[in-house]
Amino acid sequence: MDSERDRASLSKFLAKSPSADLYSLPKGDIEQLVLNNDRPALTSAGSFVSRKSLAVLIGLARGCHPGPTSVVTLIAGMLTVAGGASWVTSVMTVITVLAGQLSIGWSNDWLDATRDAMRKDKPTAAGAVSETTLRTAAFVALALTVLLSVQVSWPYGLWQLVLVGAGWLYNIGLKATALSPLPYAVGFGALPVYAMTMAAGKVEWWIPLCGSLLGIAAHFANVAPDVDLDRAQGVHGVPQRLGARRSLGIALALLAASGCLIVVHLNLSPPAIATAAAVVVLPLSAGVWILVLRQDMRLAFGLVMVAAMLDVALLVAVAREPTSGARQSELSPP
């Protein structure tokens, strides 16, 4: 800059306009601000950039559906570790699954942004993050999980791609049709196969069936609290057509079937099998009682989640068995 007046003008501009984009300023002007120790203006503009970046990160965190994303990633990690995988394999599996789940969560909020315009609990409706940012983040995460699945996890990474593909198909349109449970059945059936083959290279035939039952149960339970809102927005998947009460009842029944399937395949003594069965049956029975007699949807939903966690814990116990995957027909990469 050539004069004191110019420097003063630039400082005044930044001080009065903390929202100014520093990247739009000539490089020499910014360097001169630093050289002349004109820190108040620079600090003000820099603070704005930091606050804006933080707000976007928070919006992305909210838009990724952190609950389901964390649970699915945790399940994959637990199954891989329980199967005896090395820490490198376990970490790469977790990163791959996390990237896939992030892409599913972000694409869901991006594709539903117009429908969710009146829902202030959604980051796009609240203005925390833009549709463009969500779309970009979704495709970046998708590219990452595809790269890791092909380059690091091959050939078992094909199961991860099945999981991610099912999630995207649900978001793109199947969620509002009579086929809404299908992506959950396919995706959650593929999840334990991917995690356990990464550890041992093989898995028993009944494990993806168990995962599918858990996935469909999760679909009905997850949608149940919002069926009325979904109907008003034109989403008519199977849970929305059946209603919250029936959806939770179906979720309980599917979890019971999944739990029984796991228990009968555990290498336990008869007393231990009876104990494991009771652990699964008790919360399910309580859920049915609450659903039928008290009709408390929130409490019934909580019990469904407890039963699902118990089923996952039993599945992890199966993965820890040294003979798991060797007693019956085994699955190979798709």
Write a structural description:
- With 334 residues, the chain is mainly alpha-helical.
- The chain is built from 14 helices and no strands.
- The protein has helices at 4-16, 27-35, 39-63, 66-82, 87-111, 131-151, 157-172, 181-200, 206-223, 227-232, 238-242, 244-263, 270-294, 297-320.
- Helix 5 runs parallel beside helix 7 and helix 7 (157-172) runs antiparallel to helix 8.
- 41% of the residues are buried.
- The model is unreliable at 17-23, 37-43 and 323-329 (pLDDT under 50).
Main sheet properties: none
Q: What is the element string, with H for helices and E for strands?
A: HHHHHHHHHHHHHH
Catalogue the unreliable spans: 17-23, 37-43, 323-329
Determine Rg (CA atoms, Å): 25 Å
Number of strands: 0
Mean pLDDT: 78
Report the end-to-end length measured between terminal Cα atoms: 65 Å
Strand portion: under 5%
What is the general shape?
Answer: globular
The helical percent reads: over 70%
User: With helices defined by DSSP (H or I, 4 residues minimum), what is the helix count?
Assistant: 14
What structural class should be given to the helix and strand makeup?
mainly alpha
Summarize the structure.
It is built from 14 helices and no strands. With 334 residues, the protein is mostly helical.
List the helices and strands and how they pair.
Elements: H1 4-16, H2 27-35, H3 39-63, H4 66-82, H5 87-111, H6 131-151, H7 157-172, H8 181-200, H9 206-223, H10 227-232, H11 238-242, H12 244-263, H13 270-294, H14 297-320
Helix pairs in contact: 1-3, 4-5, 4-8, 4-14, 5-6, 5-7, 6-7, 7-8, 8-9, 9-12, 9-14, 12-13, 12-14, 13-14
